[in-house]
Amino acid sequence: MANSNQPLIFEQSKTGRTAYSLSALDVPAQPTETLIASDYIRRKKPELPEVSELQLVRHYMALSRRNFGVDNGFYPLGSCTMKYNPKVNEVLARLDGLTHIHPYQDPQSVQGALELLYRLQTNLEEITGMDAMTLQPAAGAHGEWTGLMTIRAFHEANHDSKRTKVIIPDTAHGTNPASASVAGFETVTVKSNANGLVDLDDLRRVADETTAALMLTNPNTLGLFETHIQEIAEIIHAAGGKVYYDGANMNAIMGVTRPGDMGYDVVHLNLHKTFTGPHGGGGPGSGPVGVKKELAAFLPKPLIIQKEDGSYGLDYNRPQSIGRVKSYYGNFAINVRAYAYIRTMGGKGLNQVSKDAVLNANYLLKRLSGAFDTPFKQLCKHEFVLSGSRQKALGVRTLDMAKRLLDFGYYPPTIYFPLLVDEAMMIEPTETESKETLDAFADHLLEIAREAESNPEIVQEAPHQTVIKRLDETRAARHPILRYRKNDREQQ
Ligand SMILES: *Cc1c(COP(=O)(O)O)cnc(C)c1O
């Protein structure tokens, strides 16, 4: 990365420079007006940069080197499961037979693709302990919404119209309350106890005849296993509600236990997290939803089925379905990658993944717990939450430590989430990292903790090694520059 610290120059355009050449016209030229409706014809030339091919290549190469991904380095972003994406998945997703087909083709002519999706569905049903599965949803949040709409349709079919509330613990991922409200529910918060687990008394207090569902991740968003999960499910079921599993991160339990066996009725998965689909940059993702039998009729349509003659097809004959939630069959190529991953690992392999993910997280927790406050004392699952409150007393915030990690070449952990931990730092190493990587990361974070005591300025003023220092994050989010416009930079 020799020159990756040089400033990028965006205004390189010189009139008349091109990065392409087109072959001579081999058909008679026709006036544009005869080919395109006049409304669509440009009146003015587009203001595009005029650059040479070499300039173009260097510009994008320089940009790509500034990108940080799991292929560049350690990415311990809690709740995001930034594991390595095996390259064999890419090879398989690119196979001609899978890329040169079209979703409008007659199902008879794409039996292989349908079989793959059907097998993926069946494998995911087995992994989650569910009876039916849709592969349509495009991401985790979309899966949550789909699952909740399915629950809503179930209650409506039973004329149970009082069920307007979804119970969500205070540790939940932000998409949970958001999805519940987009699905038309009110959200009710259930408190966590001092051990970071659902407070059963509080749950009994809030669960009643207005409860449509409880949304609960297990292990929860603190990385802790809800040991009373069966009791929790019983409380909700006794009140007439359904139990929803946010399975975005299955990394601690895959092949070990199943939401279906814990008493859950609905689960969504993030194939772009647990099942090695690449993510970041906005997708594409895949958020399949699995349900127990009594909810199956309400899943989106079509479902992929195997017919009596053994062939595969699309079942549209589903009168109680909530309808289609995504065009075609979901994000096909991500589903191919997930299927490739499941087949490569096998059942034993997936079980080992969970054990290694939990081992790696506990190893890091142990190494870091002397220098940072650990709000919860029990063993963690695939991730854990530290508190930077000790460092805060020295004037060093968790944000400062996260920025300091950039100097050492790491993507920082998730910070200030979950909200109930002061100065939270949520670390998820995943199973794909080696002991050497974990040790190097722990050494650097321990060094930062020592710096907070001996030389706080170096942490407070970090990062020192990156091209761009601290961003105005509000401005970056509110006024992003996403496309080239001549002289745009001068207007900013
Ligand atoms: C990532 C995540 C989600 C949301 O998934 P998207 O694909 O980003 O919509 C939901 N819940 C949890 C626990 C997550 O980690």
Automatic annotation (TrEMBL):
Protein's UniProt keywords contain Oxidoreductase: yes
Organism per entry: Sporolactobacillus spathodeae
Described purpose of this protein according to its UniProt entry: The glycine cleavage system catalyzes the degradation of glycine. The P protein binds the alpha-amino group of glycine through its pyridoxal phosphate cofactor; CO(2) is released and the remaining methylamine moiety is then transferred to the lipoamide cofactor of the H protein.
GO function terms (MF aspect): glycine dehydrogenase (decarboxylating) activity
Organism superkingdom: Bacteria
Cofactor(s) the record lists: pyridoxal 5'-phosphate
Domain Aminotransferase class V: 162-280
Keywords on record: Oxidoreductase, Pyridoxal phosphate
Entry-annotated residues carrying N6-(pyridoxal phosphate)lysine: K273
EC number(s) per entry: 1.4.4.2
Record-stated family: Belongs to the GcvP family. C-terminal subunit subfamily.
InterPro entries, per database record: Aminotrans_V_dom, GcvPB, GDC-P_C, GDC_P, PyrdxlP-dep_Trfase, PyrdxlP-dep_Trfase_major, PyrdxlP-dep_Trfase_small
The protein's name: Probable glycine dehydrogenase (decarboxylating) subunit 2
Location of the Glycine dehydrogenase C-terminal domain: 354-454
Reaction catalysed by this enzyme: N(6)-[(R)-lipoyl]-L-lysyl-[glycine-cleavage complex H protein] + glycine + H(+) = N(6)-[(R)-S(8)-aminomethyldihydrolipoyl]-L-lysyl-[glycine-cleavage complex H protein] + CO2
Enzyme class: oxidoreductase
Subunit annotation: The glycine cleavage system is composed of four proteins: P, T, L and H. In this organism, the P 'protein' is a heterodimer of two subunits.
